[in-house]
Structure formats: structure tokens, C-alpha cells
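Continuing the batch. This is chain 6 of the set; chains 1 through 5 are on the previous pages. Same settings as before, nothing changed between runs. Recording input and output for traceability.
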Amino acid sequence: MMRALWTSATGMQTQQFNMDVISNNLANVNTTGFKSSRAEFQDLLYEHIRRAGDIDSQGQQIPLGLEVGHGAKAVATFKNFSQGDVTNTGNPLDLMVQGDGFFQILMPDGSLQYTRDGSFNSDGNGSVVTADGHPLDPPITIPSEATGVVVGTTGQVSITLPNGQPNQVIGQIQLARFQNEAGLESQGQNMFSSTDAAGQVINGAPGEAGFGTIDQGFLEASNVSVVNEMVNLIVTQRAYEVNTEAIKASDQMLSQADNLTSLTS
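Output for chain 6:
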């Protein structure tokens, strides 16, 4: 019965972790480019009281073992990188990757981070930056005389000029992709950083083999399914309740055993 108490406690801990993951998904249901997560679990060590295949006192082989587990634990958080819904904004600096690939963002320490959030702006110098002021890499700078910005599906950036002058190409957007996207590490601010588990970064232009294309004037919405997350939330809550009931039952059994001991002593 003491084992049951600790086993049920691990169940409550895993369901609490699952609830934390689901809550974060629901909190980011309107976050541009957000990718939902799923908690994954494993069972803990087993006590093998009798192993399958052992020989009993009569010389007979035992076909089934006798074992009991010690609960569960959280082992991973799987990130779902499926495409989110499309949001039409009409803003020329709102860009969406249709397919695989991440925008590359230069951080203040000189490192690169990666995002699916294409809601860019121009700063006082004309540089194309994120909402937090981090520039796109390779850098794109819009001249002050530009009257408009055109981003093609292949990532070529050009500007329109006054007085009927022809469009002028000012840069090329490069995307990054990874062998194992789920191995990227979430950094907040809609950013991911590379890890050894993600594999070597692969760079290329939009539309090249393995890379998605760019849609100007659109944003990729969160890929969180509210319906699925609400169902998961209910299932998690019920699993938590079941574990609490197991603890109550174990406590009552211990109490009854103590009472029997008192009566016999």
C-alpha cells in the first residue's frame, strides 16, 4: 500500500506536467507562428517478484512473470511543426513560409535564432526587423526613397521607386531548415535555437528543393487546435483525479490495517 501511495504521486506529477504543456498551448492559441507541444511519458522501473520462464518447486516452467511498476515520468516534449492557418493582413512586411523553413534572425550576441513568425517591421534605419528589433539575416534594408516593397515567392526583395522608375532588387531572403525540427530548443519570443539533436542547419532560398515559398501580406497563425487541447485538458484532469482517488484508497487501507493491528495487540 505504501508503494501505491508513491506510484499514484508520480501519476499526479506527470498529469500536472501534462496540464502545464496544454495550458501553454492554449495560452498561445493566437501567437503568430506558434507550434504546439505534446508531453510524452514513460513507465518507471519494475520490481520483478517472479520472472517469466522461472522453474517452480515442481520443476515446471512458469509462463507468466509477477511484477509491479512504480509509476510514470515525463520524458520529452514533442513540438508539432505542422503548418498553421493562414491570416491575410495585407501588410507588405508580413511574410509567411508556405512549407518547410525558418526565417533566420540575428541576435545581439551575434548568434542566429530561427522563427516561423514573419511579422516584420522596418526600424529607423530601414532595416527589416522583428517586433523586438532583431534584424533578419541576411539583412534587408529598405531605402528611404522607396514607395513600396515587393517580396516574391522565391524570397527576392525589391522596391518600387517614384516617378515611374523600374523596380530595384535590394536583397534575397534565405531560409533555414533542419533534419530534425523537433530537436530545436524553444527560446521564447517565437524563437528557436539549434541543437545537436536538430542536426546541421541547411540554408537555401525559398522555393528551392526542400524549402517552402514566401507569401507576402500573410502570416502563419498558431497551429494549436483548441478543440483537441480542450479534450486533452479534460482527459488530463480526469487522470489526475483518478490518481488522487488511488491515494485516498491506499490511505484508507493503511488506516484499516493499523486498526486491525491495534485490535490484535
